[in-house]
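As a warm-up, study this chain.
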Amino acid sequence: MTYTFPLPENESERLLALEDYDILDTLPEQAYDDIARLAAFICGVDKAMIAFLDAERKWHKARYNIAAEEVPGALLSAPGPLWEANRSLFPIHLKIPG
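Now compare it with the structure written out below.
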């Protein structure tokens, strides 16, 4: 099943900013892994990740008890708020003002 969600008006700007950040496909870093592990502990869950979404996939910079390094965009099953402009996501889609 493929899901289609409306993209924010500034999606092209978001993608350019993500490209400028130059983090996609970088090597694992202990600091990010520690944050993912801490997020799982704080939230009382057994899995956590730090992920970035480009136009074609969700890429995991850090994973705690998650094997996949990325998920193709066609398989994303997150709700529409995932694409809301000016929002950040935390584990389990808890929105934090951004």
